[in-house]
Amino acid sequence: MSTARVVRRVAVFGGTHGNEMSGVYLVKRWLQNQEAITRPSFLTVPCIANPRAVERCRRYIDVDLNRQFTQEHFSMDFPPSTAPYEVHRAVELNKKFGAKGEAFDVIIDLHNTTSNMGNCLIIGSSMDSFTLQMVKYLVQRSGLVCPVFLTENTVPQLEMADSKRLGVHGISLELGAQPQGVLLADIYLRHERLVHTCLDFIHKFNQGEVFPPETLEVYRILHVVDYPRNNDNDLSAMVHPELQDKDWHPLKPGDPMFLTLDGETIKYEGDSTVYPAFINEAAYYEKGIAFWATQKETLNVTELQVKTK
Amino acid sequence: MSTARVVRRVAVFGGTHGNEMSGVYLVKRWLQNQEAITRPSFLTVPCIANPRAVERCRRYIDVDLNRQFTQEHFSMDFPPSTAPYEVHRAVELNKKFGAKGEAFDVIIDLHNTTSNMGNCLIIGSSMDSFTLQMVKYLVQRSGLVCPVFLTENTVPQLEMADSKRLGVHGISLELGAQPQGVLLADIYLRHERLVHTCLDFIHKFNQGEVFPPETLEVYRILHVVDYPRNNDNDLSAMVHPELQDKDWHPLKPGDPMFLTLDGETIKYEGDSTVYPAFINEAAYYEKGIAFWATQKETLNVTELQVKTK
């Protein structure tokens, strides 16, 4: 049996990336009218995380905000005036929602991807029973198929430093495929449903409901695979049509992986089957990521109840 | 019987919009190796139309290049130094490809859209037999389903001033759905096939082949339909899930058209059936366009042969 503290404050972020539109529009709507995200046992605060990027419908102004939630930035009271806009913003968000502020219990961060990821739930730890039980609740009760992406830090260079680290618990709801700068009603409605289901879980938890032990299937991050590139570091191949949109499907040794601009197939030559995610995400060209290789595993989720005194 | 002059010079543009990736990568490849686009009877010149926007993977730097091909800019030798980058670029392109330069016979401009437009062929006139016969050839011989979008100027405010006006004849190959900043192999291959088919047509035309009279089904532009907006000019509704991806399908009075952010359906209340195109194109949010209403009509295409002497 695990216990966790009662949840007093929940933040729902949209526009951490300013051109991921369903989170932007949901949060804008909730800022006008909070009724739909209000639950009796805790406070819910909607927030446009990167307002300047939202205004310009761009992913970011200077640097990716969702990699600025570092210990270094958390320790700052005031960044140097020459620091990138998003560093200033990470420090501000920490002063409002993080350890230097009201120390919110849960951060729910709404994202979109151009990859065919479906209703992906991203979590950063396999050890946080509260978040795991919330994820299991989403899987069982949202009525949506929800692949779970575990970004637990097995290799240091994959350090995420994302918004989830602001809160005690955190989850990203990463829905796709949706082009940058486009609002798809279907994705907006699924994003809305997932947030409501998270809030319902939290309220039940606060009320003392016991969540029994469970198992949870997750895709754990292994490593990134980049596009083949030429001497100018430009792409010399594309995601192969047989791999495109096949996020979460097994990629076996010998399967087609890339197609060169001249039409030649490049096969996957790894030793074992992997499960690609974030295949052909627009924002990852500059990061050197054609997809993330993951492995499938089953986590044990311990029984959970709210801590009483 | 119509005649047209023999074709001496053809330009293939990619990156008129810097984040429309299949044209960008095809043209980059052809700049390295022109063999695939070489035909014996004419010169083919590939060109990255907006190189700075391509470098930054943005639609444009200052203004939409594809609306700068105006008579005013065509008359300029040197724009004011304070003019937007794309005005400078339109003047440069005119000096190379247009009337102030080598007066290219055909401009083929490669575009992508986030809308589900398929292999859309865009033409600006119902009077140019050469272009109509080339389009008919694409429809019949490319092996691809190709809806034809006719932007002929029935209402002055829809003045396009696009790249096609640089050449004597011109066509845009507008393929989708593809997110901005993403290269989809499937679309890249279809774009390549359409360009090859255009070049094959032109070579046959130059060789004296007679193209018989034909009819051609086109979607002629009627007017634009904007999103419902609030007092801040921000969207208050999205494209309805039943309309999303239904480019070229009939939209009948009473059909669902938008879904408000609060979940209410807004129906189409026009008097007659229209055929929407460019539904939910990312770049058109700022232009105030949710989709373009078109009507279906059949053009007569006159017999065509190259002019001798």
From TrEMBL, chains A, B:
Sorted UniProt keywords: Cytoplasm, Hydrolase, Metal-binding, Zinc
Annotated positions binding Zn(2+): 17, 20, 111
Domain (Succinylglutamate desuccinylase/Aspartoacylase catalytic) ranges: 8-202
Domain AstE/AspA barrel-sandwich hybrid: 215-296
MF annotations from Gene Ontology: hydrolase activity, acting on carbon-nitrogen (but not peptide) bonds, in linear amides; hydrolase activity, acting on ester bonds; metal ion binding
Record InterPro entries: AspA/AstE_fam, Aspartoacylase, AstE_AspA_cat, Aste_AspA_hybrid_dom
Domain of life of the source: Eukaryota
Localization: Cytoplasm
Cofactor binding: number and manner: Binds 1 zinc ion per subunit.
Active site residues of this protein: 174 (proton donor/acceptor)
Gene Ontology CC annotations of this record: cytosol
Hydrolase listed as a keyword: yes
Alphabetized CDD domains for the sequence: M14_ASPA (cd06909)
Cofactor: Zn(2+)
Family in the record: Belongs to the AspA/AstE family. Aspartoacylase subfamily.
Protein name as annotated: ACY3 protein
Gene encoding the protein: ACY3
